[in-house]
Prior knowledge:
By secondary structure, this protein is α+β, with helices and mostly antiparallel strands. The chain contains eight helices and 18 strands. A hairpin with a 2-residue loop joins β6 and β7 (168-169).
Amino acid sequence: MSQRTIAALLAVPLLLGLFVVVGTQPLPYVTYRPGPSLDILAAPDGKEIVEVVGEKAYRDAGELRLTTIYVDQPQEDVTLDELMRAWLDPSEAVYPYESVYAPEETDESSDAESAVQMVSSQDAAVATALIELGYEVEPEIEVLYVDKDLPAAGLLKVRDIVLKVAGADIASSEDVVEAVDSAPVGQPITFLVRRKGQEVSVDVTPREVDGDKQIGIQLGPGFTFPFDVSVDIGDNIGGPSAGLMFSLAIFDTLTPGSLSGGEVVAGSGTINAEGQAGPIGGVQQKIAGAQDAGAELFMVAADNCSETIGLDTGDMRLVRVETMHDAVEAITTWADDHDAALPTCEDKS
């Protein structure tokens, strides 16, 4: 046996080992894959997702579906074989890690931020829908997140409206921060909050963490509504990207007849209290998920339009929207005539 043959035989297991190592090593990328969609007008197990108390609700035909994606978590290992699969699948996408997550981000911090965004998104959606219908909505300061490992846990609740801290009226999130910072370490601070329509007083004692006084809450814009509206999709879906579809589902629930004319409409986009639709990540994967769910119309936030040009969506039409009002008008027009002219992303390009 020649030396060349011996060298080749020795090289084969080494190369195989190298391929195994490379194929299983984590790489600095994140993959996006189509996730399930959910009809927000549905009532799984007999419980309405959109619940209304204190005003008449209308339960009609049709579906308004939020869309989701599967995204690798910050601390999840993504290997070469997973990246190759995503690159080869036209319904998936690959992004550099740093374009999706901050360097210090963890699974826990990502989940916490996602929870905050979901609460804020739902409240903005309720505000948008009610304003669209002519109701008065009052802005407030709201608890969006409570850290289970810090002093506010079990005392303050998500969606508490903060009225007073240490006897002082609260007009902004900064007022709360200043009240906590000025309190003596080890001394309780009294929070007066509105919780489910009732005023509740609780004492929270700040804890010093890395030289900073903390109680473990995140605050943000909240609202006082003329009646109770809630959206319950469970804890498996987070982030702000369903805001537009939440607002449409709430609008549909508070108005007689089916907004979609009994058909299946999907979409994605953030929403703010002024009713403006904002861009989201993974729009191509969400469009693919909507097609799988049988949607005939898909709402695209205008700032996502550049990502949809040239996509093959089959018989499903894409509609460009700037605001929730745009979406209502487009869906209503389409429900009356499926061949009607609607705003498209090509119009913007």
